[in-house]
TrEMBL record:
InterPro entries to which the protein is assigned, alphabetical: DUF427 (IPR007361), DUF427_sf (IPR038694)
Organism of provenance: Massilia aquatica
Gene3D superfamilies for the chain: Domain of unknown function (DUF427)
The name this protein goes by in its record: DUF427 domain-containing protein
Signal peptide: none
Domain DUF427: 4-90
Amino acid sequence: MPTASWNGAVIADAPDDQVQIVENNVYFPMSAVKQEYLQPSATETKCPWKGTANYFSLLVDGQTNRDAVWTYRAPFDAARQIAGHVAFWKGVTVQR
């Protein structure tokens, strides 16, 4: 089962058949993410084939990992399989 961990906490876990792999990133369904660790962020970036990425920061045991989580809320058709999913970076350990 794929998991995402940071600062000693499991942030997300989901069965293989619920995650999506795009550009070597594991996208977890938002329902598999422990919402108490997510903090909204105003950061946005643009991908020419996926669309606009929106970010969250992680807050775990008083430590913040700014913009370590991203999602495409309305991905372009080419990336529609990641709608409702999030991916991680910035030191978040993802194991498959």
